Structure prediction request, 324 residues.
Amino acid sequence: MAIAKAERLMNLALCLLGTRRPLSKRELRESIEAYVEAFGPGKGAAGDDSFSRMFERDKDDLRELGLVIETVENLDGEVGYLARRDSNRLPPITLDAEEAAALGLAAKVWQQARLAGAASGALQKLRAAGLPEDVDPYEAHGALEPRIPVHEAAFEPLMLACRDRRPVIFDYRKATAAHPEPRHVEPWALECWRGHWYLAGWDRDRGAERVFRLSRITGRVRSRGSGFTASVPDVVTVRETVATWAGEVADRSALIRLRSGAGYPLRAKAAKVRELGDGWDELEIPYGHGLDAWLVEFGPDVVVLEPAELRADVVDRLRAVAKG
Prediction:
């Protein structure tokens, strides 16, 4: 069946590329052998409907492969189709080894997402259009390779919503809340920061810009048909916003106790470390907005000593988690 479909698509593409005038569905149905065999005379109305569905799928498949198909309506109102050669001819592509390597790495970072197929297909098209034959874009070019983990089910629907400028609704559980709450959001951009994906957008319920961590989205992301109500900024600083909320921008210090052999990210940020004995150390770390949420992730390995408001925030978050 795969071979038959590939042959059918090839014949349809050749017909559309070889014609000087638009061809109607009827003419294409009578010219392509696969259509004649499946939907020839005697198939009736059911055959007409089946052919129309197959023809529409075939056109979509060819367009997905990159063929530019024009739809033209003549004076009698009949619709025809053609693919002009000048619209389907790529200019020469010249890529050096470094550029090809960059494309290969860009494709490999999406290997855990459904975008992997699209990225691989794009590289195959570039190869056919002139990518140097002696360059393997998938070849390792160093000891380190980029990885962008995409485990959240919300990633793909949110990516498409950002692209199409479609508002969405989803259930979101804050770190301090026991249960998720619905959020109506106009999505702007997605960005990965320190192994986690974040969405920036306009929160309609709160009337302000917000950033959401995808791992805290529960259930299914649903689309809403209405358009955006807020203007999209030219630059969406997702990473800078999250960094500020995560305590990366700090003007104070906090004092914590940390279990020995644990919390290496905290130790890396510490301005001072003092051994207390009995399996505990005392650390002085930068204190900014969102530090309480980060400390909660280390569970019983961390005890906040001061300031008092940070200790209270961490205790509140732990209680919320304990309530489920």
Notes: The chain is about 40% helix and 25% strand. The two ends are 51 Å apart (CA to CA). The chain has a mean pLDDT of 80.
